[in-house]
Design brief:
This protein is α+β, with helices and mostly antiparallel strands. The protein has two domains: about 10-115; about 145-215. It contains seven helices and seven strands. The strands form two sheets. Strands 3, 4, 5 and 6 form a four-stranded antiparallel sheet that branches. The mean pLDDT is about 85.
């Protein structure tokens, strides 16, 4: 089981509001995220209030909603934006998502945790970016491995071609036992080339040994 080292200031703030780090936080690829439910619980406990949102952009057909929202905690006030669109949210309710994002950001600012943790809805986009980055890195690693394998096979193929020429030279000699051994070794190289789809080596084998195999 993983053992987490939660941010001390975040843990302290959560305890003050009757929440544990384990139930309120989750580790999103090394970045701490405060769950939406925990944000709402903190807002209710501290008496955080919000002004009516100001709609900055609205397009229901395109699934776009951008609002500006101000929140208050005693004499302290903070404001932020909440954005939702098809490019940063899979939620079918963009206005609700924009509201959630704006409220969570304001709450984090008012309790002094903005920058130390992400809100849950912000992390959705962050997680997608991380996944895309990991996918790109894996693709790059695979390409590097494929390139390394290709260079390795090329080197082995060159050696195999050289070995076939040497084996052919043995088969044209007068020592029948060595000739038969050379034919068998050449066949092993052909089988190896077939397994690894090295057509050039296969063709070289057939060109050198086809007549000898037919006459054997």
């Amino acid at each position: 089981m993983a053992t987490y080292s939660y941010p001390e200031n975040v843990t302290k703030a959560l305890k003050e509001n009757g929440l544990s780090s384990k139930e309120a936080l989750w580790d999103c690829h090394g970045t701490w995220v405060l769950k939406h439910k925990a944000c709402e619980s903190i807002a209710a406990n501290k008496g955080i209030t919000f002004d009516d949102p100001i709609i900055i952009e609205s397009d229901a057909d395109k699934g776009i909603a951008v609002i500006s929202l101000r929140g208050h905690l005693g004499n302290q006030s903070e404001w932020t934006f909440g954005e939702a669109s098809k490019s940063n949210s899979k939620n079918s309710y963009p206005y609700a998502m924009a509201e959630k994002r704006a409220k969570d950001r304001v709450i984090l600012k008012l309790i002094g945790l903005h920058g130390d943790v992400y809100s849950e809805d912000e992390a959705i986009e962050f997680e997608e970016e991380v996944k895309a980055q990991e996918k790109a890195e894996k693709k790059k690693e695979k390409e590097a491995i494929d390139t390394s394998v290709w260079h390795g096979m090329k080197k082995e193929g060159q050696k195999a071609g050289h070995d076939l020429n040497n084996l052919y030279a043995i088969t044209v000699g007068k020592n029948k036992e060595k000739s038969m051994k050379a034919l068998a070794d050449a066949k092993d190289i052909y089988d190896w080339a077939t397994k690894h789809n090295l057509v050039i080596i296969q063709d070289q084998y057939l060109k050198l040994f086809d007549k000898k195999l037919k006459s054997a």
